[in-house]
Amino acid sequence: MTIHLTPEQEQRVQAVMGRGSYASVEEVVDAGLAAVEERIVPGFAGTQEELNALLAEGLASKELTEAEFWGGVNTQTDSLLVDHNSGLRS
């Protein structure tokens, strides 16, 4: 598959790679797709700002592997869902 990026999108990808978080364009795209998948998960109770904060935290971290980052996102998302569902039952 071939994709075409706007100059702004290409700069954004290069900026992410420049921070050392990802070594290749493919890794950036994979992380972006994972973020989209997280956003469309039915029942996600967090706000877009909360998700953005989690993603920014992971991108800024050079100590976490991608798997560790997404594991943390999943854990926090699960916690938000439990809190949300508990509130619905009260």
Description of the structure:
There is one protein chain. This protein is mostly helical and 90 residues long. It has one domain. It has 4 helices and no strands. Helix 3 (48-60) runs antiparallel to helix 4. The longest helix is centred in the C-terminal third of the chain and has 24 residues, at 66-89. The mean pLDDT is 81.
Tags for this model:
single chain, about 90 residues, mainly alpha, 4 helices, about 70% helix
Please outline what is shown here.
This protein is an all-alpha fold and 90 residues long.
β-sheet strand percentage: under 5%
Mean pLDDT over the full residue set: 81
SSE ordering: HHHH
Helicity range: over 70%
The gross shape turns out to be: elongated
* Structural class category: mainly alpha
SSE inventory with pairings:
Blueprint: H1 7-18, H2 25-39, H3 48-60, H4 66-89
Helix pairs in contact: 3-4
